[in-house]
UniProtKB/TrEMBL annotation:
Pfam families: TPR_16 (PF13432). InterPro entries: TPR-like_helical_dom_sf. Gene3D superfamilies: Tetratricopeptide repeat domain (1.25.40.10). PANTHER family: TPR DOMAIN-CONTAINING PROTEIN, WW DOMAIN-CONTAINING PROTEIN. This is Tetratricopeptide repeat protein. The lineage of its organism: Bacteria, Pseudomonadati, Myxococcota, Myxococcia, Myxococcales.
């Protein structure tokens, strides 16, 4: 979908993609591939191969795989140098950054030059794209939308036009949960397309993308599953499916899909003889696998995926500092998620002397934060306070740096992540010191910062601010307010055992033991295949045996505790 190409929706481990600097018509010829869907738009050509490659480019454009879509459109242009729509596709797949502004302009102007004599619909597609190619998605937004609306009005049966418009209008959600300006419009278009074109891979992919961060991600669950059947060789489509499955709590299924993404990416790299840095989806898929395994309590398996990510990064020559930091962040965040502070603080990452400010700042922030938590949990409050001060001093200079370009880490995004970590750590320290009012203020600020993080930026390496605030409120004797936060976390991440464990602990603090037993049972269901030595597993089983009236056998690893066993639990 267009939003993926024009707004860099996903964070990038590697700052470049294959063939970025290769001119369009010098790109290597891709094979015609099966398993990418069946989208088709009749264009003005008498060359069958040109039509076939154009359709492949269109499918890949819908599915968010820009680099491969560009190759397909380039081959369509080589097969038929007079095919105006091939250059239309080349203009759209170059994205919106200033780096490729000249390439976009040349492609769309070539399309305009060749558009005399093509169909009215094709001319309208090309005119609409000139607004994006010449002005970018922000300045050209109004013109593009109006021209596409005119196209749809003239050709109401053209599903591709409606899908492209919906994909462009998908603006996501603001920090307070309200939809972006174009989001409801995009959703309305896609709901109708789901009804009229239920077998269109691009429609299901776009629906997954617009719903994954909404309050109702389960509305796209069927689409996420259908993508695996409609576009099984489109790694970007599988990645979108895995993200939504993880978001809706279908953790085991998400792991299967994400593993398939990594395997498909590796097969594509082998076929194309490309380095690890060229993989379009494996980097993010591996990071999501770490998260999925963490949600399921599979710490050992998560470590294996994190090591695999780091090995991929370190195998690339020359080394990319950005990739090293992202890989280190996946490992560190995993250790922090399970409370292994010492392991989290031992990153052992050495950047090149010429590493950029954003890379060094993010690495330093991760190291400081892990050291601060280690000090805090060890009762060294003065040392934790000094780390808070160092984190506070780290983010203002980053915020003053120039904005990053293209897929490179932006210093201002790093500044936001570091500031969030500083607020969360300071709030945890203040709660430990008994300064609950100050802790509340610090952690509410951290929550607000967390909501305002940009999607293309680096992932937060700190603990979820709401979890820390919930535990602070329990310490302060405000269990009912802590319960609100814990219930919201469970609703957002129903497949996360950590969220269920927090909810159970809050119920224990409230003295609501039947509710605690139910939450612990849900936790153990999420962690059915978890590493048995983890202290959370032992704590849940001990509670259910002691307070919940559940037999020792029922609480053993791998057993799902029936809810009827909890009916007679007394508060």
């Amino acid at each position: 979908m267009l939003a993926r190409h024009l707004r860099a929706e996903d964070p990038s481990i590697f700052p470049s993609t294959p063939w970025d600097d290769v001119p369009d018509l010098e790109l290597p010829t891709p094979p015609l591939r099966e398993g990418l869907g069946r989208a088709h738009l009749k264009v003005s050509t008498r060359v069958p191969l040109a039509q076939s490659y154009f359709d492949q480019g269109l499918r890949l454009l819908h599915l968010g795989w820009g680099a491969e879509a560009r190759r397909a459109f380039a081959e369509a242009a080589r097969q038929d140098p007079q095919l105006a729509m091939a250059y239309w596709g080349l203009a759209l797949t170059r994205g919106a950054g200033a780096r490729f502004a000249t390439d976009r302009a040349e492609a769309i102007h070539k399309a305009l030059t060749l558009s005399e004599g093509v169909t009215d619909a094709e001319q309208r597609y090309i005119v609409a794209a000139t607004f994006l190619a010449d002005k970018g998605p922000a300045n050209g937004r109004h013109g593009f939308v109006r021209e596409m609306e005119a196209l749809i009005d003239c050709f109401p049966e053209d599903a591709e036009a409606r899908l492209l418009l919906a994909g462009f209008l998908a603006d996501g959600y603001e920090s307070d949960g309200r939809p972006g300006a174009g989001q409801p419009y995009a959703q309305a278009l896609l709901r109708e397309l789901l009804r009229t074109h239920p077998h269109h891979e691009g429609v299901h992919y776009a629906w997954v993308q617009v719903m994954v961060e909404s309050a109702r991600p389960e509305a796209a669950l069927e689409s996420a599953r259908r993508l695996r059947l409609l576009a099984p060789r489109a790694v970007t489509a599988l990645l979108g499916s895995g993200r939504l499955l993880l978001r809706t709590g279908h953790t085991r299924e998400a792991r299967e899909v994400l593993e398939a993404v990594v395997a498909a990416d590796d097969a594509w790299l082998s076929q194309e003889s490309l380095p690890e840095s060229a993989a379009p989806a494996a980097g993010l898929a591996l990071r999501l696998l770490v998260q999925a395994c963490a949600d399921a309590g599979r710490y050992g398996e998560a470590q294996a995926w994190a090591r695999r990510l780091r090995q991929r990064v370190e195998s690339v020559t020359p080394h990319f500092g950005q990739a090293l930091v992202f890989a280190a962040g996946a490992v560190s965040s995993l250790h922090l998620r399970f409370g292994f502070w010492r392991a989290a603080s031992d990153l052992h990452v050495e950047l090149e002397p010429e590493a950029r400010v954003a890379e060094q700042g993010l690495l330093t922030g991760m190291e400081l934060y892990a050291r601060g938590l280690r000090a805090l949990e060890g009762g060294k409050l003065a040392e934790a306070g000094r780390v808070c001060d160092e984190l506070d001093a780290l983010h203002p200079p980053l915020a003053d740096e120039r904005k990053g370009d293209s897929r490179k880490l932006c210093p201002r995004d790093v500044a936001r992540v570091v500031e969030l970590a500083a607020c969360e750590l300071r709030g945890a320290l203040e709660a430990r010191q008994g300064e609950f009012a100050r802790a509340e203020a610090s952690l509410i600020k951290a929550m607000r910062l967390e909501r305002r993080l940009r999607a293309p930026g680096p992932s937060a390496f700190s603990r979820p601010a709401r979890e820390t605030l919930a535990r602070s409120r329990v310490r302060a004797g405000r269990e009912d307010k802590a319960l609100e936060l814990a219930e919201a976390l469970v609703k957002e991440r129903p497949g996360s055992g950590h969220a269920w464990f927090l909810l159970a602990e809050v119920h224990v603090a409230r003295g609501a033991f039947s509710e605690a037993a139910s939450a612990f049972a849900s936790f153990l269901a999420c962690w059915r295949d978890a590493d048995s030595q983890l202290p959370e597993v032992r704590r849940a089983r001990a509670f259910l045996v002691g307070r919940g009236g559940v037999s020792v056998e029922a609480a053993l690893p791998g057993n799902v505790i029936p809810l009827r066993a909890l009916e007679n639990v007394s508060c």
